[in-house]
Amino acid sequence: MAFCTGCSLLCDDIEVDFQGGKIKKTMNLCRKGHAHYDSLGVDRLAPAVDGSSVGIDEAVSAAAEVLAGAENVLLFGWGNSTLAAQGAGVKLAKKLGCVIDDPSSYSQGLITEKILAGDFPTCTFDDVRNFADVSIYWGDDPSSSHPRHMSRFSYFPRGEKRQRGYEEDREAIVIDVRKSPTAQIAADGFFKILPGGDGEFMEALMATLGGKIPKVEDKKKMLNLGTKLRKAKFGVIFTGPGLAHSLGGDLAGFASLVGRLNELTRFSVIPSLSDYNSRGFNQTLFDKTGHVNGVSFKNGVDHGPEFGIAKYLDACDAVMVVGSDPAAVLPGTLAKKLAKVPMVAVNSFKNLTTDIAKVTVPTAVAGLEVGGSALRADGLRVEFDAFVESDYLPDVEVVERMMEAV
Amino acid sequence: MAGKAEVTVITYRGIFQEVEEALGMYSEGYRDQSALVVLDKGEVKELGVEDGQPVILENGFGKVVVTAKLSEDPHPGVAFMPSSPWSAQLASGEVGEDGILDLKRFRAQVSKANEAVTTIEEIGERIRAA
Questions:
Q1: Which fold, B4-128?
Q2: CB contact under 8 A, A332 and B127
């Protein structure tokens, strides 16, 4: 049985006949996972310094020089790294007395932190498959981002207490600004909201749950939703980036809604995270510092938005990006700031960030070329083995060698 | 009649874009799935924009040329765009007090283009030229 690190579902039931770098036959691999396997031979990163090819040892030494020669270093990325590499990354940050952060600092970090802190109840995907009768996808489109989410866990499968699956036993509710592929599956369970209208929808839903008439156009549909949620035996809210960005840092309304739902019945929250081990980084840093992102080790442990990449780019004088592509994701104005900072890029593949890096250090693709462990988006720890042989270094070895060199 | 329309752009991730990204973000396939904007057909009729034609999206943060996809479902005032290096050029770099960036929603003007779709290499050059 093979393993897929193509997204944070970390599917462990994959069968693949892989010959000559190509898939000949496969079972259970989704379209995205198929591309993940096919990517092994595409745009692989090579060790380089200032655009010139060097050996891997020279690249690691040059990377260590960049980090050791700076006063305000930012170690960023980590969502596509193994737990071992993430742990080594936190140790490196401590050793350098620098800042460590991941993309959750400008996205879903606050929600994840509340889950890890126990403020939001959560559960595993297996609990969802076996017991959940209502799944709410809020600003979340798993049909696109996590293609087997609904078929393995949240809507279509038959579970221990959900033998009649989506036909009779499960409800899918989608709250989104667009009729996404997931919304099309939910059909009548789709609630289209205006851009930025999440807070307003929450207020209307809270009013409904409180027995009041909601101030929305389609009152009947909202009242029916309230009834469904009240009658749910086990509900789950899957939070997507659409919700996180709409709410910004103000989770009070969402927290009130989750609290109210749990007074009425049982509702859990699971974030839909994109990189395969985003949850692993958040958990690793949380265990060490009590925070999921944006931590400075300069004077003990400091945390705050000023240590997230979006703000810290103004202060840092060296960056190491591991398994991430902030130059492609950050607003152009911030990507330009990133390009001005001496940068080390550690990655398996070329991307816009590796293109602007002073030093590039290639790594093996975890789950395919090297084994390791990771946390699924629901927090479940999974172990995986290498699937094909590779000469690339494991990510943890690269980080540990840098730690020795600095 | 040529002109400009003001829209709120909402970004999203699509399965086929994710596939093409995994297969190489410098590929034509990735550009085809990423450098596009879904516009309300009725709304952009006056701009002379047709399905599959390039359009300019611009605001105070940047400018890109992407392919227009015209949707039959009405969504006046709102356009949808895959979250990508193209959309990132138009996103606000302003950081909220909480550190969160608004990568999902921004305002932009759309107009008919007489130039080719922006390539990812051009975006890379813009970033490097800073």
A1: Barwin-like endoglucanases (2.40.40)
A2: yes
ipTM of the complex in this document: 0.95
Task: Give the domains, in start order, of chain A with CATH numbers.
Answer: 46-107+276-367+392-405 (3.40.50.1220), 109-271 (3.40.228.10)
CB contact under 8 A, B105 and A241: no
Query: What is the Cα–Cα distance from A300 to A61, expressed in whole angstroms?
Result: 27
Q: With an 8 Å Cβ cutoff, is B96 touching chain A?
A: yes
A38 touches chain B (CB under 8 A): yes
Chain B, nearest residue to A330 by Cα: B88
- Asked if pLDDT for residue A155 goes beyond 60, the answer is yes
The mean pLDDT of chain A is 96
Residue B86 CB coordination number (10 Å)? 27
> What residues of A are in contact with residue B83 (Cβ under 8 Å)?
329
pLDDT-above-70 percentage for chain B:
98
Contact B85 A177 (CB under 8 A): no
Whether A244 sits inside 8 A of B26 (CB atoms) is: no
Task: Nearest by CB to B62, from A245, A308, A332: name it.
Answer: A332
Q: Which helix (H) or strand (E) holds A390?
A: none
CA distance A353 to A346: 10
pLDDT tens digit sequence for A348-406:
999 999 999 999 999 999 999 999 999 999 999 999 999 899 999 999 999 999 999 99
* Among A241, A257, A279, residue whose Cα is nearest residue A142: A241
Confidence (pLDDT) at B102: 85
Which residue carries 């989410």 as its tokens?
A149
Question: What gap in Å lies between CA B110 and CA B90, rounded to an integer?
Answer: 12
> Where does the pLDDT of residue A309 fall: very low under 50, low under 70, confident under 90, or very high at 90 and above?
very high
Sketch the domain layout of chain B as residue ranges.
4-128
